[in-house]
Amino acid sequence: MILNQNKTKPCPCGSNKRFDLCCGPYINGVKKPSTAKALMKSRFTAYALANEEYLKATWHPFSCPQKLELNKDKTQWQQLKILGSKKGKSLDKKGWVAFAAFYLDESGQQGVLKEESLFVREAGQWLYHSGTPIED
After folding, report:
1. CATH number for the domain including 128?
2. How far does Cα 82 stand from its chain's mean position?
3. Which residues lie across from 120 on neighbouring strands?
4. Distance of CA 126 to CAs 8, 75, 108, Å?
5. Residue limits of the YchJ-like middle NTF2-like domain (predicted)?
6. Overall domain count for the chain
7. Which structural domain, as residue segments, surrounds residue 73?
8. CA distances in angstroms from 71 to 28, 42, 44, 47, 75, listed in the order given
9. Which of 19, 48, 59, 130 could pair with 12 in a Cys bridge, judged by C-beta atoms 3.0 to 4.6 Å apart?
10. 76-119 pLDDT, tens per residue?
Protein backbone atom coordinates (compact mmCIF):
# COMPACT_ATOMS: atom_id res chain seq x y z
CA MET A 1 0.00 0.00 0.00
CA ILE A 2 1.44 3.38 -1.00
CA LEU A 3 1.12 6.04 1.64
CA ASN A 4 1.66 9.74 0.89
CA GLN A 5 3.65 9.09 -2.27
CA ASN A 6 2.76 10.24 -5.76
CA LYS A 7 4.07 7.53 -8.06
CA THR A 8 5.65 10.03 -10.45
CA LYS A 9 7.58 11.92 -7.74
CA PRO A 10 11.21 11.05 -6.92
CA CYS A 11 11.64 7.98 -4.77
CA PRO A 12 12.54 8.78 -1.13
CA CYS A 13 15.52 6.40 -1.33
CA GLY A 14 17.49 9.07 -3.19
CA SER A 15 17.95 7.24 -6.49
CA ASN A 16 16.59 10.21 -8.48
CA LYS A 17 14.23 7.75 -10.17
CA ARG A 18 10.45 8.01 -10.06
CA PHE A 19 8.90 6.12 -7.17
CA ASP A 20 6.93 3.86 -9.53
CA LEU A 21 10.17 2.96 -11.35
CA CYS A 22 12.25 2.44 -8.21
CA CYS A 23 10.99 1.22 -4.82
CA GLY A 24 7.28 1.38 -5.65
CA PRO A 25 7.06 -2.09 -7.24
CA TYR A 26 8.71 -3.63 -4.16
CA ILE A 27 6.50 -1.82 -1.67
CA ASN A 28 3.40 -2.66 -3.71
CA GLY A 29 4.34 -6.36 -3.86
CA VAL A 30 4.73 -6.40 -7.66
CA LYS A 31 8.30 -7.68 -7.38
CA LYS A 32 10.91 -8.51 -4.75
CA PRO A 33 14.29 -6.79 -4.39
CA SER A 34 17.02 -8.93 -5.97
CA THR A 35 19.83 -7.58 -3.77
CA ALA A 36 20.31 -6.62 -0.13
CA LYS A 37 21.08 -3.05 -1.23
CA ALA A 38 17.78 -2.78 -3.13
CA LEU A 39 15.96 -4.07 -0.05
CA MET A 40 17.76 -1.50 2.13
CA LYS A 41 16.64 1.32 -0.16
CA SER A 42 13.06 0.07 -0.26
CA ARG A 43 12.96 -0.27 3.53
CA PHE A 44 14.19 3.32 3.93
CA THR A 45 11.41 4.37 1.56
CA ALA A 46 8.91 2.40 3.65
CA TYR A 47 10.10 4.21 6.78
CA ALA A 48 9.78 7.55 4.98
CA LEU A 49 6.21 6.62 4.01
CA ALA A 50 5.38 5.03 7.40
CA ASN A 51 4.53 1.76 5.64
CA GLU A 52 4.64 -0.68 8.55
CA GLU A 53 3.16 -3.53 6.49
CA TYR A 54 6.13 -3.59 4.09
CA LEU A 55 8.68 -3.25 6.87
CA LYS A 56 7.24 -6.24 8.73
CA ALA A 57 7.04 -8.30 5.53
CA THR A 58 10.75 -7.71 4.87
CA TRP A 59 11.96 -8.22 8.45
CA HIS A 60 13.34 -11.60 9.48
CA PRO A 61 10.99 -13.25 12.03
CA PHE A 62 14.01 -13.78 14.34
CA SER A 63 14.34 -10.05 15.02
CA CYS A 64 11.06 -8.44 13.92
CA PRO A 65 9.39 -6.47 16.72
CA GLN A 66 5.73 -7.21 17.36
CA LYS A 67 4.80 -3.53 17.10
CA LEU A 68 6.49 -0.74 15.17
CA GLU A 69 3.90 2.03 15.67
CA LEU A 70 5.36 4.21 12.93
CA ASN A 71 2.31 6.47 12.90
CA LYS A 72 3.02 7.48 16.51
CA ASP A 73 6.65 8.20 15.69
CA LYS A 74 7.04 11.77 14.43
CA THR A 75 10.44 11.11 12.82
CA GLN A 76 10.67 12.44 9.27
CA TRP A 77 13.17 10.41 7.27
CA GLN A 78 14.87 12.82 4.88
CA GLN A 79 17.74 11.16 3.02
CA LEU A 80 19.56 7.86 2.64
CA LYS A 81 23.24 7.54 1.85
CA ILE A 82 24.68 4.09 1.18
CA LEU A 83 28.19 3.99 2.66
CA GLY A 84 29.12 0.57 1.32
CA SER A 85 28.00 -3.00 0.86
CA LYS A 86 29.43 -6.50 0.93
CA LYS A 87 27.93 -9.52 -0.79
CA GLY A 88 24.12 -9.36 -0.92
CA LYS A 89 23.80 -10.16 -4.62
CA SER A 90 21.05 -12.32 -6.08
CA LEU A 91 22.83 -15.65 -5.43
CA ASP A 92 24.30 -14.83 -1.99
CA LYS A 93 22.74 -16.04 1.25
CA LYS A 94 23.90 -13.02 3.29
CA GLY A 95 24.76 -9.42 2.62
CA TRP A 96 25.73 -6.32 4.56
CA VAL A 97 24.82 -2.72 3.76
CA ALA A 98 26.31 0.25 5.64
CA PHE A 99 24.23 3.40 5.48
CA ALA A 100 23.54 6.81 6.94
CA ALA A 101 19.87 7.78 7.25
CA PHE A 102 19.21 11.45 7.90
CA TYR A 103 16.07 12.54 9.71
CA LEU A 104 14.24 15.27 11.61
CA ASP A 105 12.91 14.29 15.01
CA GLU A 106 9.57 15.48 16.40
CA SER A 107 11.19 18.66 17.76
CA GLY A 108 12.69 19.49 14.36
CA GLN A 109 16.25 18.53 15.33
CA GLN A 110 18.35 16.96 12.62
CA GLY A 111 19.91 13.60 13.27
CA VAL A 112 21.59 10.73 11.51
CA LEU A 113 21.35 6.99 12.06
CA LYS A 114 24.44 5.09 10.89
CA GLU A 115 24.27 1.34 10.78
CA GLU A 116 25.69 -1.73 9.12
CA SER A 117 22.70 -3.95 8.43
CA LEU A 118 22.78 -7.69 7.97
CA PHE A 119 20.40 -9.14 5.38
CA VAL A 120 19.70 -12.80 4.76
CA ARG A 121 18.11 -14.43 1.73
CA GLU A 122 15.61 -17.16 2.50
CA ALA A 123 13.34 -18.88 -0.02
CA GLY A 124 14.55 -16.40 -2.65
CA GLN A 125 13.61 -13.32 -0.63
CA TRP A 126 15.93 -10.84 1.05
CA LEU A 127 15.06 -10.01 4.67
CA TYR A 128 16.48 -7.50 7.12
CA HIS A 129 17.99 -9.47 9.99
CA SER A 130 19.80 -7.07 12.31
CA GLY A 131 22.00 -4.02 12.48
CA THR A 132 25.11 -2.77 14.23
CA PRO A 133 25.48 0.95 14.90
CA ILE A 134 28.40 2.67 13.18
CA GLU A 135 30.24 5.03 15.51
CA ASP A 136 31.97 8.14 14.20
Report:
1. 3.10.450.50
2. 11
3. 94, 127
4. 26, 26, 33
5. 35-131
6. 1
7. 19-133
8. 19, 18, 15, 10, 9
9. 48
10. 999 999 999 999 999 999 999 999 999 999 899 999 999 999 99
